[in-house]
Design brief:
The protein is mainly beta and 638 residues long.
């Protein structure tokens, strides 16, 4: 509503919706007085001032994020329908709560600004309660919350004059044109004269940029810049102090520049990376922060004391051995495994990589390795060094069928899965690319040449690390070695980033297909589709699919269910002429979801026999907060 507007004033209005309401979200200034809100996620104006409002929260993140100096709630009541935890923003950003009362059916509700806060975030509160008892937001990380009691910054939001409490909406909304929707300018002016303090020019934010930076000891320095703002991102003059904890002072040097900014220089001579929080402090009580990753000084890469060797295959595994002069440091060498056409490494294709500072010393053989030579490339490295000159070692004999412990299993936890684009369809290999399926033509997006996948971490429901989509249309295809295949199954463990059961960013052709009995060349076979539809905000549909030369059709009834959540287990099985799917999760059913929706799925449909043995995943959802993290994938042939 009212995008790109200014001086929007809503009085005695009700904003009753659920998802994505965002009234006046694009306005420069928005003021809500005596208003009622009902919402789920992404529903409030991120730079609004809310006075004497009451809000009903039906899910845990009413803001996607706030903007600039954030949102301010003055004398507001919050009725929290969710259980266990209530957050305000999905993306950590500034919020101020003054004289606010939260109510919930239980006294153990955890209140926090955001679910995954970064250490640079600072939010402000004063006189906040839960069920009548004082409460601190984000209590497990109290440095993220500035309690404004007896601090000058509180006067930006409220002050007392002639025995009356005045909510300082004039200071918050006046910007540079004196907008005064509550008509309190004269009171603010009189109070300023009486108290000798300018209540119309009180800042609400101390920002520090960059919020995160990385320094290598012995290399270049970096600078932190500060800004002091009145509400509405209006800069004001002022000076600050810079602070780090005494225990961090040995790892990072600070020098205040003439303009008040801060020069950083790394002094970390330990063997560990150090994360140092640098805080800016203003006399009013405002705080800002930046997190500095201080890397130790770089040392030469370790030398080999014993050159790499590969063992003969044993129990389906080839082992790599070597020795380095690590001087008691952990080995962080980058080990990459390749399949090659000969012992000289001809036409090498990567099949396993090292991540998380864990060298891949062992390589598990699969049917796709038969007939290839295995090569390992080692780039020697420890925590204090860059990767050194690579050394390669190659097997002297090709892999044989007898070397494979379980030729009927293709398995990966994705930690060593190569994420570089690999477009070829080769027997025994994975194709890693992006593709726009025919049934998404109505939606305006296209696959591009950027890496479609990456291994890393994410927010929301995605736990730990895993394989994530880097662009819309991300696709994985496994082409089996040549042969005729019968019964098979595909098992996947995945974490959707979405936490309410909706799985994907929107109901705009966003789905994830899991292929089975699939021909990767003709794009024909069967699968399970998990798709977001307009039917539910906290559930997805599950339906079995048939594919014929890239065209898809449903072959079962769709089931709407709430189980597409963290630690989602997906089992797809083809036996003779029957396709079965089972989906479950260890996560509880989303609060306030339709009680009639199932929390597990069982589907089956008749299919025609084929000899295909391919599998894969096609994801057409958005990335980031709409992605799905893959933790495990097993392809089993029977």
């Amino acid at each position: 509503l009212c995008n790109n507007s200014d001086k929007v004033y809503a009085s005695n209005c009700s904003f009753i919706s659920r998802l994505n309401t965002c009234p006046f979200v694009g306005s420069k200034r928005a003021f809500f007085e005596d208003c009622h809100f009902e919402s789920t996620d992404d529903a409030l104006c991120g730079n609004g001032v809310y006075l004497n409002c009451d809000l009903d929260f039906y899910s845990s993140k009413p803001f996607w994020s706030t903007h600039g100096t954030g949102a301010a709630f003055l004398n507001c009541d919050f009725n929290v329908i969710t259980q266990n935890a209530q957050y305000l923003t999905k993306v950590g950003s500034q919020v101020a709560l003054i004289d606010c009362r939260f109510r919930n059916t239980g006294d153990s509700l955890y209140l926090a600004w955001t679910q995954y806060p970064k250490d640079d975030m600072r939010c402000y509160q004063h006189n906040v309660s839960l069920n009548g008892q004082a409460v601190l937001f984000q209590a497990d990380r109290p440095y993220l919350t500035i309690e404004m009691e007896n601090k000058e910054v509180l006067k930006a939001y409220r002050f007392e004059y002639e025995g009356k409490l005045i909510y300082n909406t004039y200071n918050l909304l006046r910007s540079d044109d004196d907008w005064d929707p509550c008509g309190i300018k004269e009171i603010v002016t009189a109070a300023s004269q009486t108290d000798g303090f300018d209540y119309s020019n009180v800042p609400v934010q101390l920002s520090v940029k960059p919020a995160f930076t990385e320094l290598q000891t012995g290399e270049k320095t970096d600078t932190l810049f500060f800004g002091i703002n009145r509400f509405g991102n209006i800069p004001v003059e002022g000076s600050i102090d810079w602070y780090i904890s005494p225990e961090d002072a040995q790892f990072l040097s600070l020098r205040r520049l003439r303009n008040g900014n801060c020069l950083l220089e790394g002094s970390n001579y330990s063997d560990e990376i150090r994360h140092v929080m640098v805080e800016a402090r203003h006399s009013s009580g405002l705080r800002g922060a930046s997190v500095v990753k201080v890397l130790p000084s770089i040392l030469p890469a370790p030398r080999f004391t014993a050159y790499p060797e590969l063992s003969a295959p044993d129990q389906g595994i080839i082992k790599l051995t070597y020795s380095l002069n690590l001087r008691n440091r952990a080995d962080h060498s980058l080990v990459t495994w390749y399949r090659c056409k000969d012992a000289q490494g001809k036409e090498a294709i990567p099949v396993a990589v090292s991540r998380l500072n864990q060298p891949e010393y062992n390589y598990s053989l699969s049917a796709g390795d038969v007939g290839f030579y295995l090569q390992a490339k080692i780039e020697p490295k420890h925590i204090r060094s860059l990767p050194g000159t690579p050394v390669t070692v190659c097997s002297t004999e090709p892999i044989t069928k007898e070397d494979i412990l379980n030729p009927n299993l293709i398995t990966t936890d994705f930690q060593n899965f190569p994420d570089n684009t690999q477009k070829q369809l080769l027997p025994g290999f994975w194709t890693v690319d992006a593709y726009k399926p025919a049934d998404t033509e109505a939606y305006n997006w296209r696959a591009n040449s950027k890496n479609a996948w990456f291994y890393g971490s994410a927010q929301g429901g995605a736990k730990g690390t895993g394989f994530l989509q880097g662009q819309k249309g991300a696709r994985l295809l496994y082409t089996p070695v040549e042969g005729s295949y019968g019964n098979m199954e595909v098992n996947i463990v995945a974490d959707p980033c979405k936490t309410a059961g909706q799985g994907f960013g929107s109901a705009t052709g966003q789905y994830m297909d899991i292929y089975i009995k699939f021909d990767t060349k003709s794009l024909s076979g069967y699968g399970l589709r998990i798709v977001r539809t307009p039917k539910y905000a906290n559930a997805v549909d599950f339906v079995l699919m048939e594919y014929n030369k890239g065209l898809s059709r449903e072959i079962s009834d769709a089931i709407s269910a709430t189980c597409y959540l963290t630690n989602c287990s997906i089992r797809l099985k083809a036996e003779a002429q029957l396709l079965k799917a089972e989906v479950s999760t260890t996560s509880p059913k989303p609060y306030n979801s339709d009680p009639n929706l199932p929390h597990e799925v069982k589907l089956e449909a008749e299919i025609s026999s084929n000899s295909f043995g391919g599998s894969g995943i096609q994801h057409t959802g958005s990335t980031g907060g709409g992605a799905t993290m893959l933790h495990q994938m097993d392809i089993i042939y029977h």
